[in-house]
Amino acid sequence: MINPSLVLIAGGLTDGKSKDILTMKQNEDEWVEYKNVMEDVIKWSGLDKNLLFDLRGNHDNFGIPVVGGSFDFFSKYSISGQLGRNQSVNEETVTLGFELCKPRKFREAFNEKSPADSQQ
Fold first, then answer.
1. Which helix (H) or strand (E) holds 7?
2. Which of 2, 26, 34, 108 gives 20 to 30 Å between its CA and that of 65?
3. 89: closest CA among 48, 59, 112, 56?
4. For the segment 2-53, what is each residue's pLDDT rounded down to a tens digit?
5. SS3 116
6. Is 60 exposed, middle or buried, given 0-12, 13-18 or 19+ CB atoms closer than 10 A?
7. How far apart are CA 45 and CA 94, in angstroms?
8. What is the Cα–Cα distance from 24 to 67, expressed in whole angstroms?
9. Cα(31)–Cα(75) distance, rounded to whole angstroms?
10. Rounded distance, CA 71 to CA 76, Å?
11. SS in 3 state form for 8-59?
12. What is the DSSP code (8-state) at residue 60?
């Protein structure tokens, strides 16, 4: 069983576009769906809700003039918003880097000769 100390959910959590894909905007229906999915994840995984940190992405910022305003559905429906974790729309940037490749121990694959080999 996996027992994480932290679960980071990086945005965009929603699409943030109109149905005709011409306008960047928040759609409350998408946020209600996100909230329902996350409630199911918490229920079925047995994880403590406090371990989940959802982060606002660029699509989650479209059309939000003010944090906490009527179009800020992140604050209303996200886990972080429900738990009162304050985030700024324009002043906070979170950058995470992950190295998913194993370190290289050889210059090239075994079945290929390097240019240096042909010069010997």
1. strand 7-10
2. 34
3. 56
4. 788 888 888 788 887 777 877 788 889 999 999 999 999 999 999 999 999 8
5. helix
6. buried
7. 26
8. 17
9. 10
10. 9
11. EEECCCCCCECCCCCCECCCHHHHHHHHHHHHHHHHHHCCCHHHEEEECCHH
12. G
| 3-class DSSP state of 79 | helix
Q: Among positive and negative, which fits the CA dihedral 45, 5, 85, 95? A: negative
Map tokens 């069983």 to a residue.
Answer: 1
DSSP state of 111: T
Neighbours of 119 (CB within 10 A): 6
For the chain, counts of helices (H) and of strands (E): 4, 2
d(CA 40, CA 33): 11
Report residue 28 as tokens.
């409350």
For residue 2, what are its two tokens? 């996996």
The tokens describing 47, both together, are 């994880």
